[in-house]
Amino acid sequence: xxxxxxxxxxxxxxxxxxxxxxxxxxxxxxxxxxxxxxxxxxxxxxxxxxxxxxxxxxxxxxxxxxxxxxxxxxxxxxxxxxxxxxxxxxxxxxxxxxxxxxxxxxxxxxxxxxxxxxxxxxxxxxxxxxxxxxxxxxxxxxxxxxxxxxxxxxxxxxxxxxxxxxxxxxxxxxxxxxxxxxxxxxxxxxxxxxxxxxxxxxxxxxxxxxxxxxxxxxxxxxxxxxxxxxxxxxxxxxxxxxxxxxxxxxxxxxxxxxxxx
Length: 261
Description:
Layout: H1 2-16, H2 25-40, E1 45-46, H3 50-66, E2 73-77, E3 85-88, E4 92-96, H4 100-103, H5 106-121, H6 124-147, H7 153-193, H8 200-209, H9 225-242, H10 249-259
Parallel strand pairs: 2-4
Antiparallel strand pairs: 1-2, 3-4
Helix pairs in contact: 1-6, 3-5, 3-7, 5-7, 5-8, 6-7, 7-9, 8-9
């Protein structure tokens, strides 16, 4: 039984980190709608003014660059003490006013929004839900195996707690950091495609670093901001070259259709 548990745990942990996604966009749609309604109801919505217009312009351009048929939506929320932004599955975006002093300008906002949009286009929500689901199965298998062993209930509970902590720091959090790095890179691609200055992105993360850190990088779901800035500065020239001549899928399809006549 112990060998079975070990093999089962290993298999499920490997599956949880390989980018599987059990959820379609259609399945996530009602969850996205509900979560968006709840999250954006916490703060007043800004519906006019220069900042609102800037958010809407960046949304239009980044959405076009992302080239996904999502029901795109963006809200600016009045929360000066919240330096944050998010994009839920299927393209529902929220920008908190507290992040605008960090983005500084439209190009900085494009860097942040591109990053958040990339979480949606790369289906990170579904992948993370899949990972959590598989991790839950792993814990159930371990619990079942320990239940058949001769072990006192207190010792068993302590061991289960330790395994949970190991799983969190060895699998779940690094997986999130991988998503963050992927979103950084795709976000820069979207900003470049949309005509924004990608060199503002490293500056945004450097300003983020000035806010301080809640702990060492290996205990965080986000990479260190200064490391992100360093990585982006190194990669931006190459990404700029790679994105030259990019055209949206609709243009490619139209060109292919004309060539086939």
